[in-house]
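Board notes, transcribed. Complex of a protein with adenosine-5'-triphosphate.
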Amino acid sequence: MITLSNVVKTFTSRFGSFTALNGIDLTIQKGEIFGIIGYSGAGKSTLVRMINMLETPTSGEVTVGDTKLNQLSSRELRRARRKIGMVFQHFNLLWSRTVAENVALPMEIAGVPKREHAARVMELLDLVGLSEKADAYPAQLSGGQKQRVGIARALANQPDVLLCDEATSALDPKTTDSILELLKEINRKLGLTIVLITHEMHVIEKICDRVAVMESGRIIEMGDVVEVFSHPKTTTTRELISQVAGSEQPEQEFLEGLNQGAVLRCTFLGEAANQTVISKLVTELGVEVNILQGQIKRLKDIAFGTLYIQVPGDVEVEAKTVAYLKKQGIKVDVLRGAEGGGRS
Ligand SMILES: Nc1ncnc2c1ncn2[C@@H]1O[C@H](COP(=O)(O)OP(=O)(O)OP(=O)(O)O)[C@@H](O)[C@H]1O
Ligand SMILES: [Mg+2]
């Protein structure tokens, strides 16, 4: 559906040149929700702006559907862009127009006959749950409602692709989730391909099928969300995952005051199916376990995250506990040995 082949983007100004995209190869399937994640400056927005030619590549090729975008005349490009909707972080609504007039704008630009606007606008507002706000002005709406208008507007010309650049980054967590649900619903109902850019792993976890992790203008990791979450290959990806798994702990402080038995950090990376592993320690090994803190998240069939446990007892108990956990595919670090002192 969408293909980028060896795309390079170099910005040149009188201050010098900067390569924001450094050889991007990417294929996005029709109908999927594809996430692009990375820290600020990674090149995410530049990449997504290649997909509708808001930026033109310095070299490489961008294809959407059957159309090679970088070979089009400006007239052909305008036509192709109608099939690519875009949603922005700060909504980009026109403040002097009502909700309905904002949603109708792309139709006006595309020359859709005026008599067709009203019905289409109502259909779109119904889809995003804002039928009652047709005559309101953007200033009268909450952030979540503004973004719903942004989404309705992006869908006005029945696009095949919806690009979302940090569409939820200005919203609180609850509103974020409701917008993500809406995007998922739209993806399902309309069979639309969605490309979603974010710096929050939560967004990826919530609705994406596949994900690409970007750093310094390159894709450093790409795959099914479950696969990437369960077997992260790079430090950056692991860091991003820890946002949702809550696995980083101030270990030194944490260990103070825990002066009995062994303290273990158990990292679940997917192979260990679930938390029953811990309860089996008790039933099968007869080992007592105190869960200190940590968080295990589930994503489809996998568990990932970190659990800190304390195992009262001697060195022998520690050894058999560690051996058992490792056999279950859990990564174990001994933060404090049963005889005192840390090792791993
Ligand atoms: N028009 C431009 N001229 C010069 N440099 C640019 C231009 N646009 C982007 N850049 C640079 O390219 C790099 C990537 O920018 P981009 O906006 O794609 O990052 P991003 O991953 O979207 O970051 P953020 O999460 O902050 O939105 C940045 O270092 C930025 O300064
Ligand atoms: Mg950006």
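The radius of gyration is 25 Å. The mean pLDDT is 90.
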